[in-house]
Amino acid sequence: GELAALSGQVRHGANVKFGYLSQTHTELRPELSALDSVLEVDRKCTLERARTILGGLLLSGDNVVKKVGDLSGGERSRVALARLQLRATNVLMLDEPTNHLDIPSTEIIQDVLQRFDGTVIFVSHDRYLVDAVASQIWVVDAGTVTCVPGGWEEYLEWRQRRREAEQVRPNAEGKPQSKEDRKAELREAKRQANQTQRLKRRHEQLETQIDAAEKALAELNRRITEAGQAGQLGKVEQLGREYQTKDAELKTLWKEWEEVGTRLEE
What we know:
Layout (H helix, E strand, L loop, with lengths): L17 E4 L12 H6 L7 H10 L16 H14 L4 E5 L7 H13 L3 E5 L3 H7 L2 E6 L2 E6 L2 H16 L11 H51 L3 H33 L1
Parallel strand pairs: 1-2, 2-3
Antiparallel strand pairs: 4-5
Helix pairs in contact: 3-4, 7-8
């Protein structure tokens, strides 16, 4: 890994070959063309094979000879994926692989991960990607890891069952409750139920807003790419500011979504 473990031990299997896709693609050299970036991974790779791999990721024609630094975020992600394919890895580790990508690039990454004949470990806020790719979800909470089989829907069902189980708690001392205690307990249960319903509604509203913000970012990214290719630098700058504003809005929405989700689990 790029970072040392803070504690404990990290053991790798004898035949495990890791591949890592970061959010920032710092492994890519901006001065190289997309084609040369792939070829530098394996000097024995032929031009034909490198072009075939890039073509499978919808990078062809003039795009393969463009400098990596001039490519869009989605195109750079595809170059990084092409490099991973040449490394013959059997375990892929990805950090927010679809973050801020346009729709075509997101669909390509999803398709590549679905066809990958190995293990994929990824962190993502993209619930559509999770549902399409994940066969299990690891829930990290309070120093423990719980494995939940299935995708996003199965995780939501598991979380709901756990929350319901935690709400059903017997009298710890086994003493019969007084009438006043039972009334107080019913009032508290009703209050919690009302609060839970409000949180659920807000959670659903946030998911709708997040979906709209992600689509808006993808559209802005597409327009920025088009403006850049047309040499409209003023428009690129204007759209870039809009992108930053919308991106900050999306991060705020995700933060609230996580906070509401945490409160629902309590």
